[in-house]
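B., you asked whether I could sanity-check this one before it goes into the benchmark set. Here's the sequence:
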Amino acid sequence: MYMADNPSLHKSFLEQLNIRFFVDSLQIDVFLDGTFVPGRVEEPLSSHNHSTYELHTILDGTGVLVMGNAEYELKPGTLHLFGPNVFHAFQASARQSFVRTTMRFSYLETPGRHASLPSKDAERIAAALSGITYFRSDHVERNRKIVSLMDEIRSEIQAQSAGACTIVRSLFSLLIVHLVRLLPMDRQPEYPALFPERVLDEMRCRVIDQYFRHYNENLTIDELAERLSLSPKQTGRVLKQHYNVVQGKAAPYAHRSGQRIAANERIADRAHFEAGRL
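And here's what the prediction gave me:
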């Protein structure tokens, strides 16, 4: 359990943190305050709402959640997600109290960002969260992953070691994904996850780099062209465009008669060799 009197976890410090990260084109902002540190609620919390999503995890004790005329029991291990502008209240007392931790977040779609690395993650997350008013998860074992991530985040914020900001953003990204996976399947589009693929030119450059690394072998331009699925002439144009290497007396590198590649200084630099070693 994290102590609220730790200077790194003071309410004022947490409120000042600007935590923003992206899932593809989806910008996600996280807002923290003193309730991100586990604390016991022993008095009623009157009806209120937020302009953001609000996540509560109940760690211990019991209480009552009130939404309009409906009441829901708060139990250890449960998770409660409120949508934007949804009014809610909590009933608690010295005899019936509970320990909770909370966080708030919002998302914004930013079309065009990471357009070169498309995937469906942003679309799926936005679709799952859109229109949520209230969601409750009683799956204690699955909820434990969210609780564990919150613990890790507090540890990183408290330690403030090198790379802490990067790790905190990454952990919050994982937290949002695991939260979305808890939501009912009918809120999630049915298409499969798609991983971005390398564009053809990137793949060709990798093949060429590997080819140059074997400059001391009996490799020919014909073999390289075959690996690139290009003609020798087209391969020459690719080498000229991306490596500024041309075939000729000034910079011979290979030719169709089957000569080995004569690696020049540019090729050596690209392949991470020193010219003096050639």
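One thing to flag: The first strand starts at residue 19 and ends at 23. Otherwise nothing jumped out at me.
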